[in-house]
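agent> Task received from the user: take the single chain below, predict its 3D structure, and emit C-alpha cells. No templates, no multimer pairing.
agent> Plan: (1) validate residues, (2) run structure prediction, (3) serialize to C-alpha cells, (4) report one or two observations.
agent> Step 1 OK, no nonstandard residues flagged.
tool_call: predict_structure(input=
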Amino acid sequence: MRGTTVLPGAPCAAPRNGDPPVHRLELRLPDQVPFAAGGFDAMGPMSRAAYPHRHTFYEIVHVVEGSGVHVLDLERYEVRPPQLGVILPGQVHHWEGVRGLEGSLALFTPEFLVGGPDDEELLRRLGERPWVDLDAATHERTARLMGDLAEEYRHGADGFAGVLRSLLHVLLV
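)
tool_result: status=success, residues=173
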C-alpha cells in the first residue's frame, strides 16, 4: 500500500512528459483505513475532474443526476442516470461537458478489500463492465448501500473498517 494513500493536499509526483497525472487516495488521518466515501461535493472538486488523470485506487461512481460524458481509457460513456461506473487503478478517465452531476463515490485500495483469492477475482472482474445503466430496483439498492458506506465512513466508530468491507462486498457482488 506504500505510496497509494496520502494526507489531503499532499502533492503527487509530476507525471512524465505526456502522461496523465496520477492521484493517490487522500485520507483524513494517516492511520485511517485506505477507503473514502461520500457525495461528489463531499469528495471535492477532483471528483468532477475535466482533465485526463489516473489513480492508484479503485473508484466506484453512482451517478443519480446530471448529463455529459465520462471518458474511460478513451471510451466515451454518455451520462444517463441512474448509472454505476467503475474505474480501476491506472485507468485514465475524466468528465466532459457535465452539468448537474450528482451522486456518490467509494474509493479504496486493492489491499482494503482483498482477503483471499475470491476477492482478487472480484476486483479483476470489476473492469469488465465499467459503466452500466441501472434499473429502478438496482438503483435503489445501490443508493442505499452507497449511503450506508458514506455514513459509516463519516462516523468512523470502532470496527468501522470491517463494516465498510462488508458493505463494499455486498455492493460489488
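agent> Step 4: summary for the user.
Residues 136-155 form the longest helix (20 residues).
agent> Done.
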